[in-house]
Amino acid sequence: MEPGYPYRGPVNGPHGGQFGGPVGMPVGMPMGGPGGRPFSCPPARSGYGPPPVGPPRGFPAGRPAGPMGGMMGGPPGMAAIMGPGMAPGMAPGMGPGMGPGMAPGMGQSLVLGGQPPVASRSAMLLSGCYAETMTANAVANSLDALRVCLAEPLQPPVMALLEEIRRCSGVLTQVLDSARTNPSRVPVLLDYLELLLPCFQKSLVDIRAHYDDNTKTKDIRWRTMYHKMTEEAGGIPLPQIFTLYHQFILLLGQMLTRSPSFDMNALEVLQQRIEQLREKQGLKPPEQSKALVAPSHLGMNYHDKNVHWAEDIFSRPLPCRTPLKHLEFSQCFGPWLPPAMPSTAKVLFRRSFDNERLTLIAYIDPTNKAPFLMIRCLDAANNPIYSTKGVHEVVMQRDGSCLVLQRWSYADKCAKLWAFLYFLTYEELVLFHTAFVALKADGGLTRKVQDHEFNLDREKRLFQAKIEDDGFDHLLIVYQDHKTRRMRLHVAIWSGELRYWPVWTAFVTHPSKSWVVRKGRRRIHLKDVQLYVFCNDYREEHMRQNKSGAFELIFHSEDAATHFKRLLDPFSSTATSSAPSTTPSGPPTSADDSDHSESSTSSGASDDK
């Protein structure tokens, strides 16, 4: 794929600039030249390349160039994302030997495969957000001028369209603001922006093309615009196309800032709808380039003590999505009481089920600093009802695609059913269960977490061994789900009072032939692996101090490293199922148990849980 988002249609902006208007075009400038005459537009360059160096037509006199030199009026703070090797005045994506106005891909190639490095790609796509923001404002203003000239019955749909376009411009601006304050999180957006921007750009360009068609009256221009673009989108009304864009961008902003309101399932649904819209618009699907994003960029800044690890777990895209079957409606069985979450509580995450019919919020109570879960359901009259329990009062077990939550009844002095939570994917189920166990283990009101609570039912243990991890001895386990066959790595504390507390987990995706690399007798590097960390004290970056940024596993024995490499290498001649079964089921009950000793766990092990 060529660098940048790959819209290849005729792109002439309202002022002749690329992407529907020059990057520095003032907000609110109307389309066309004086008297409404369209500007003469030069042929558009292909790809998402830098606009010409120098002030574009229509740029206010005396205004200095943007912080990226040639990218006039680019969003402030972008220079920090440009990365080393980019001289002032060079637009993002320009490599050595590229002159002003040359599109990326001309001259020297930036990287193999034609994709720019992450820093250049970030600057390029964020500049695209800025350009489309300016274009959207100009298009909305032009539609407002068009609305005044139309018959009154035609004005409401025009008003709805221009309001949705302005909302898109507003949330794009918010994303740019958040990108400046969360630069380490920007890489998680890149693939989504590459999916969105060509589609969003084409919709704006098509509106402008209809608006500039002086061969038709303004009534006919609007009717043609509305019906043709609705038909092209497969029947989605034109205003709702921009509603789709707005919802998608809003979720991207929530993901960027780790908002507790972020809903990954909703993002995935909207992503699929935009992919379908792109196909109907005749745009080629973008190549996924997640390998260009260092997994360390996806993690949270663990030095920031103000950010709880649980706030990060559900605020970034999953590396894979393994669907679960036999889904039913999630339910809560009370007791129902008024909402008990204090206004000053720290919200950790929010998970919704069945299109918001049931929502679970995890928060830290400011009084006792203990974690609590509040479930909000809708009754038969669609009124919200609430049930709240401390994490220390709840026990969780897996039943297929469902997590069963039981609460302790102080009145009856026994456990009672509290809720069923059905998950769409295996990854979400694992993350929710592990996060719950970690919160419960660390909760100030928890007396003791039983060993069996750390286990997730219906997983097979294929391997376990002792590793050196961030200066501590940890237990590494390879699990495989019984139904989906998806594998994951799970690391827990090796010994002591905190034994078996989860430290991190990562899902095995086999991204490339060389994703598992042997670097020594006891060292193995994992490339493109994304860790989900369940404690604030762990420092993932300590295990990525190598040239490639790969995650390093340091085993206590050479045999363990050998067996691990053989098990995880997808091109190994040894099948996963051939690992010998030497480890009994469940976690060991003492540090001296045989299945917890290094000599026995360095070999492959298999057990059904």
TrEMBL record:
<feature type="region of interest" description="Disordered">
    <location>
        <begin position="1"/>
        <end position="65"/>
    </location>
</feature>
<feature type="domain" description="PH">
    <location>
        <begin position="461"/>
        <end position="569"/>
    </location>
</feature>
<dbReference type="InterPro" id="IPR057081">
    <property type="entry name" value="PH_N"/>
</dbReference>
<dbReference type="Pfam" id="PF23076">
    <property type="entry name" value="PH_FT_C"/>
</dbReference>
<feature type="compositionally biased region" description="Low complexity">
    <location>
        <begin position="571"/>
        <end position="591"/>
    </location>
</feature>
<dbReference type="Pfam" id="PF23074">
    <property type="entry name" value="PH_FT_N"/>
</dbReference>
<feature type="region of interest" description="Disordered">
    <location>
        <begin position="571"/>
        <end position="609"/>
    </location>
</feature>
<feature type="compositionally biased region" description="Gly residues">
    <location>
        <begin position="14"/>
        <end position="23"/>
    </location>
</feature>
<dbReference type="InterPro" id="IPR057082">
    <property type="entry name" value="PH_C"/>
</dbReference>
<feature type="domain" description="PH">
    <location>
        <begin position="343"/>
        <end position="453"/>
    </location>
</feature>
<protein>
    <submittedName>
        <fullName>Uncharacterized protein</fullName>
    </submittedName>
</protein>
<feature type="compositionally biased region" description="Pro residues">
    <location>
        <begin position="49"/>
        <end position="58"/>
    </location>
</feature>
<feature type="compositionally biased region" description="Low complexity">
    <location>
        <begin position="599"/>
        <end position="609"/>
    </location>
</feature>
